[in-house]
Design a protein that fits this description.
The complex is a heterodimer of chains A (167) and B (402). Chain A has helices at residues 6-27, 50-59, 121-132; strands at residues 31-37, 40-45, 67-75, 84-92, 97-105, 110-112, 135-137. Chain A has 167 residues and is an alpha/beta fold. In chain A, the strands form two sheets. Chain A has a five-stranded mixed β-sheet. Chain B folds into two domains: 3-51, no CATH class; 59-299 and 335-400, Cytochrome-c3 Hydrogenase, chain B (Orthogonal Bundle), CATH 1.10.645.10. Helices cover 49% and strands 12% of the residues of chain B. The two termini of chain B are 25 Å apart. The chains are: A alpha/beta (167), B mainly alpha (402).
């Protein structure tokens, strides 16, 4: 990690590279894009394959990503197509390894909910819906989490102003 | 959408049915503005539904409109009991993107501050935990000890609750005169305070009856729900980022990571009290090993030049201007960096588009994940135990709602 000896970073990078090869071998057809940067591994998945891949990543002892550490959204910009990214941060307690998964989604499309795989996705997905308006298919109660229920708009979208009054 | 957004349906219920009780958001034991909708069968909790968002202030949105170096002040305000730790997590993430080496002295100071902050945070927890269970005197002892730490922070940074002490590439300023002496004084006196806590709570029959076997969470459930920090360790899982993914040189300190296997409120109490002792050990070692040298990296593209140089040398003035006016040159990309906050894994996911402001900052708040597991811990418990369980999660709504 940053600040510590640079040797750590290259070792981390090596492990990450090895892991990338395993994942690419296993899930090759479902992977849209794979990227290594600063020792971190990012895999962009085809949306349709998300549940299947996630289930394997959790259950197969070779991966053992039992923990969904974080889930959040990113708005790639009004012009971008697909416009949104949903980002999953997984962690394996046994292998001590992190993995960043992503799916890309258009405004009118929906992402399959991973609640059945990691129950704590519940609030995270609600937050992404609240902040970006991304819908999750199969979520039992997809309603706003942080903003008031009658709120209009999705605050973390890039075309949503930081301040101002809408009359 | 309107119908499904109603959290509680107000309909007439037969008298023998379960009862809905609305707990919070204005309720002293919810430690802020947490609202719980409880379904009760007599005194027993059938179902608990946390409702959050009352303290949402749009911090992640705001971070997209601030330069990298200015976002530090926002991180102070997320988990307001762990400002130093929040600073640290954020600057580590930006430093990782920039590839900055932090001078050794700054690293040791950072660890010292983060551990003092952990003690201060645990002191608030133990004080309010006792208060919730009727042990009022504890609160005063805890806050008196915490005051010492806050005064140390004030001496170093000028701020008590929101110090904004860390900088990208180091810390704001070197420690003031006599600082380490005061830290050592604290280290000498504080174990006696901890002994007093032991006498007041650890073997107190009332406290034990209120906490033992209450709010159990199994290791499996804790992992499934992404629970981290003392709660996870009290359920028997050794997961402390300072140990498993050391940062800022934590690998060079000698400390234990306390764990328990009971997974109840009492186990969480024991883990946190032991953690204060371990943090004290780290603080002592930090004072001992504190090297001399600069406290900020000298790369002028990252760190402001010393004022003296800025006023006398042209190139320093140019760098000062560029850094202030244009900001940092962070390469495009994304990082996730996590540190161990007093409440668990505090992660910063930062996306950069190469501009002077982060494109997206997401804060993985430990309390957010932990409080989501609350319904699991209170199901089937007595309503009075809900208060004990909330206190044992040690929630900070500032980081849950962001």
């Amino acid at each position: 990690m940053s600040g510590s000896a640079s040797g750590d970073i290259s070792m981390e990078a090596q492990q990450t590279h090895a892991r990338r090869q395993i994942i690419e071998q296993r899930f090759g057809p479902y992977i849209v894009e794979a990227k290594e940067q600063w020792g971190e591994l990012t895999i962009v998945l085809a949306r349709e394959a998300l549940l299947q891949v996630c289930r394997t990543l959790r259950d197969d002892p070779a991966f053992d990503y039992t923990m969904l550490v974080d889930l959040c959204g990113v708005d790639l910009g009004v012009e971008a197509d697909p416009r949104f990214e949903v980002v999953y941060h997984l962690y394996s307690l046994t292998h001590r390894h992190r993995l960043r998964l992503k799916v890309r989604v258009r405004e009118e499309e929906a992402v399959p909910s991973v609640i059945e795989i990691w129950p704590n996705a519940n609030w995270y997905e609600r937050e992404v819906y609240d902040m970006f308006g991304v819908r999750f298919e199969g979520h039992p109660e997809l309603r706003r989490l942080l903003m008031p229920e009658e709120w209009e708009g999705h605050p973390l979208r890039k075309d949503y102003p930081l301040r101002g009054y809408r009359g | 959408m309107a119908e499904s957004e109603v959290l509680v349906e107000v309909t007439r219920r037969p008298l023998d049915a379960t009862m809905m009780v609305n707990m919070g958001p204005q309720h002293p034991s919810t430690h802020g503005v947490l609202r719980l909708v409880l379904t009760l069968d007599g005194e027993r909790v059938v179902e608990a539904k946390p409702d959050i968002g009352y303290l949402h202030t749009g911090m992640e949105k705001l971070a997209e409109y601030k330069k990298y170096q200015h976002v530090i002040t926002i991180t102070d305000r997320t988990d307001y009991l762990n400002a130093m730790g929040n600073n640290l997590g954020y600057v580590l993430a930006v430093e990782k993107m920039l590839g900055v080496e932090v001078p050794p002295r700054a690293q040791v100071i950072r660890v010292m501050m983060a551990e003092l902050q952990r003690i201060a945070s645990h002191l608030v927890w133990i004080g309010t935990h006792g208060l919730d269970l009727g042990a009022m005197s504890l609160f005063f002892y805890a806050f008196a000890a915490r005051e010492e730490i806050l005064q140390l922070f004030e001496a170093a940074s000028g701020g008590r609750l929101t110090p904004s002490y860390m900088r990208i590439g180091g810390v704001m300023a070197d420690l003031p005169e006599g600082f380490t002496g005061r830290v050592l004084d604290f280290c000498r006196e504080f174990p006696r305070v901890l002994e007093e806590f032991d006498k007041l709570l650890t073997n107190n029959p009332i406290f034990r009856m209120r906490t033992e076997g209450v709010g159990r969470l199994s290791a499996e459930d804790a992992i499934r729900w992404g629970v981290t920090g003392p709660i996870l360790r009290a359920s028997g899982v050794l997961y402390d980022l300072r140990r498993v993914h050391p940062y800022s040189g934590y690998e060079s300190y000698d400390f234990d990571v306390p764990t328990r296997t009971e997974g109840d409120v009492y186990a969480r109490y024991l883990v946190r009290v032991q953690e204060m002792r371990e943090s004290l050990k780290i603080v002592r070692q930090a004072v001992e090993k504190l090297p001399s040298g600069p406290v900020r990296c000298e790369d002028p593209r990252v760190s402001l030049p010393p004022r003296e140089k800025m006023l006398t040398q042209m190139d320093a003035l140019i760098y000062h201007f560029l850094l202030t006016a244009e900001g940092l040159k962070v390469p495009p990309g994304e990082v996730y960096v996590a540190v161990e906050s007093p409440r668990g894994e505090l992660g910063y996911y930062i996306v950069s588009d190469g501009g002077p402001m982060p494109y997206r900052v997401h804060i993985r708040a430990p309390s957010f994940a932990n409080v989501q597991a609350l319904p699991l811990m209170v199901r089937g418990q007595l309503i009075a135990d809900v208060v004990a369980v909330i206190a044992s999660i040690d929630i900070v709504l500032g980081e849950i709602d962001r």
